[in-house]
Amino acid sequence: MTEVEKHSYDVLIIGAGGSGLRAAIAAHEAGLRVAVICKSLFGKAHTVMAEGGVAAAMGNANANDNWQVHFRDTMRGGKFLNNWRMAELHAKESPDRVWELETYGALFDRTKDGRISQRNFGGHEYPRLAHVGDRTGLELIRTMQQKIVSLQQDDAKQNGYPGADEGRLRVFAECTITELLKDADGRIAGAFGYRRESGSFLAFKAPAVVLATGGIGKSFKVTSNSWECTGDGMALALRAGSSLLNMEFVQFHPTGMVWPPSVKGILVTEGVRGDGGVLKNSDGKRFMFDYVPDVFRAQYADNEAEADAWYRDPDHNKRTPDLLPRDEVARAINSEVKAGRGSPHGGVFLDIASRLPREEILRRLPSMTHQFKELADVDITSEPMEVGPTCHYVMGGIEVDADTAAATGVPGLFASGEVAGGMHGSNRLGGNSLSDLLVFGRRSGEGAAAYVKSLGGTYPVITDAQIEECVSDVLTPFEREDGENAYEVHQELQQVMNDLVGIIRKADEVQDAIERLEKLKERVANVAVAGGFDFNPGWHVSLDLRNMMLVCECIAKAALMREESRGGHTRDDFPQMSARWRKVNLVCTLNSSRTGIDVVEQPMPPMRPDLLALFGREELKKYFTDEELADLPEESS
Amino acid sequence: MSYTGRFRVWRGDAEKGDLVDYDVEVNEGEVVLDIIHRLQATQAGDLAVRWNCKAGKCGSCSAEINGRPRLMCMTRMSTFAQDEVVTVTPMRTFPVMKDLVTDVSYNYVKAQQVPAFAPPANLKPGEYRMAQADVERSQEFRKCIECFLCQDVCHVIRDHEDNKTAYAGPRFLMRTAELDMHPLDTLDRKHAAQEEFGLGMCNITKCCTEVCPEHIKITDNALIPLKERVVDRRYDPLVWLGNKILRRDA
């Protein structure tokens, strides 16, 4: 048998971004032995890229804020397709999760009275985002990375020696998991993977696995995501027999860099607009006033004077439409560019220079100033930025139980963070991702711990035959003599998704994409790899490609089925939101021959009456069917 | 706008290796990392390189470009003449694993040795109050993206492998300074800075500050103030007297 390094843990966490690390902390605090798998070096996960902040209704900047307001904003942002229980837990628990970070050593920006400062962001009624300049994600990841070390130091101290003890909490850096392993009863038994640096194999025996692998952005050509975001967790879950929810909802962040070509897609934080920046077209017009949809007219200004007054006096003015939810802004930019009013490099202008003094821009947006100066030779304190939509986030993901983060259909499997679906409905609000990571990262760690304890010490087993099968599977790309170049196939996949299943979709184009994906599938199965096992990126891409194929098929097939436009899914041939479709989740599973994806409609559970009562009948009318409205209790009218 | 750029990239592993010449297409606005990626996709599929964000935020793609420690994603090709040979080599202070990838585990070992933030016992979560002016000093150091270029350039370990045990390097001395300046941290870190992390070996040549892609003033704002704090503590006559009288360890 091939040499395989074997480990045994109580909880295996796959992914070392915000949710994975928070899950690890929770599972360790529950007294279990925990391993964390990290695709990159420890501390480099994509969470580091989050800029604007973490949303939590602490009420530091505006005392009117509370969890109910945050819940309402989240449901509105997601166009009422959210898993309302997740949105409720998220709104209620975010403040505690943020305050907890301070006890780990996080240093957020402060208010005048010394509390955590909070900034405005798209779709949030009050200033709600705790932040550290425009590098909040870095603060989050570093804080939790250092908390992990702190727990290792506590363990060492407990065992009577200095330094750190990795016995109960260990991070496996630069490792990739390629398959989840189950026992004969269909329960999670462990996972198989390889070390990226040496290509050597790893097998983990663990009764509970938390998937925290993040997103899918690398399936699209223009994206703010790093190479790691290849939908690994979603593909692992599908192959293990779990299901994905609402994969058609992909968030295109309205403001990515558009020039130079090599940085196209890199994120420009929404904080620029939160701090006063405005979008303009080539005529110098603030075009967002032309794009306020009916459902948001009550909250957004229709003229510049009121929009500008809102920054100073938010209680007596409506907010600027530059801060509409991301899906609205992305579509507006797309329309302006199509109408020939774009910037020289195919975006629109984002102007902060004429809105704030230079010193203030440098203080609030240091990382943006740096990014534009170094990468595009643009001084954002004196000239406008050029920006356009970029694939940023997938709202869909693994179907989970809101309270425990348990994945559907596979005992022992849990998921949190971007890889999990439901929380954000059809569109995520900025700032709700970092809070999602904290709230559900913790819940997934605790959920996994509770499950493991329920087993009473008898863990499912994995067999040598299972491991052998995994080994031969990952070696196949080396065995082909003249196969496809993995990089080329990847580029074609990205082009297909970008062109045919992108920000604006049409039935015939999506159908075309599905046919092209079928052909690409054959090419992915024929990828050949040169070189050896040591740190071989070509081999790594060839394995990641299989995951991206599965995820892309989910996105395309669900996008074809959902005949309406809502949040991160815009159908040119069905431009309206449909009350019937709001009641439907689309659920993807691996088909019985394990060669492709099946998608079925699944009814959305009705919202609990006390949560429903937080909305007025007038607002619900915009989203609900007549039958649903007829059933509403009187007090919501 | 495109031209054929001349590159020399170090290829090899822990045992052996050499500079290999490549001619690669270069387009307007590109950075060195774009060229390395094009090499991977077209000429050298197994060329090993670390990278993640490609926007100077994660600190993964550290290397030495024409001998200077830099992030490949933040080094624009327009800073070189078109006929200039661009040489890309792995960070020298750390052992090579393969091509441009080095074994940076030294840094993670040091990170585990720095005692974690020690929160005040009397404050519950949500009760922390700190002034912006007081958190700003530590916030500057928390901008660190852990690219380890400061560690790479620091001559204390760059040319002296045997110093690695006794010396934590600028990154982790700065981490110690960060915690020491944290308004609510309850540990005294000066003794450890000097005795365990080798602060005394730093002779403030400012090389670390020069290569920091985040422009953190490592030497002026972290290392020198930390040295001053250590000296204050060690040579403060009142502390000395107090220690004598109360027979505490200095």
SSE diagram, text form:
The complex is a heterodimer of chains A (637) and B (250).
Chain A lengths: L3 E5 L2 E4 L3 H12 L4 E4 L16 E2 L11 H11 L6 H21 L13 E2 L9 E2 L5 H23 L10 E4 L2 E8 L5 E8 L5 E5 L2 E4 L20 H9 L3 E2 L4 E8 L13 H4 L3 E3 L23 H9 L13 H13 L9 E4 L6 H7 L1 H11 L8 E10 L2 E2 L14 E3 L16 H23 L9 H16 L6 H15 L6 H18 L12 H25 L17 H4 L1 E7 L6 E7 L5 H4 L4 H5 L4 H6 L6
Parallel strand pairs in A: 1-10, 2-3, 2-11, 3-7, 11-18
Antiparallel strand pairs in A: 4-6, 5-6, 8-9, 9-10, 12-17, 12-19, 13-16, 14-15, 15-16, 19-20
Chain B lengths: L2 E10 L4 E10 L5 H11 L19 E4 L2 E4 L13 E5 L6 E3 L2 E2 L2 H9 L18 H11 L6 H5 L1 H4 L10 H13 L8 H6 L11 H5 L6 H18 L1 H10 L4
Parallel strand pairs in B: 1-5
Antiparallel strand pairs in B: 1-2, 3-4, 3-5, 6-7
Helix pairs in contact in B: 3-6, 6-9
What would your notes on this structure say?
The complex is a heterodimer of chains A (637) and B (250). With 637 residues, chain A is α/β, with parallel strands linked by helices. Chain A is built from 19 helices and 20 strands. In chain A, helix 1 (18-29) runs parallel beside helix 4 (136-158) and helix 13 packs antiparallel against helix 14. Chain B has a five-stranded mixed beta sheet with strand order 2-1-5-3-4. By secondary structure, chain B is an alpha+beta fold.
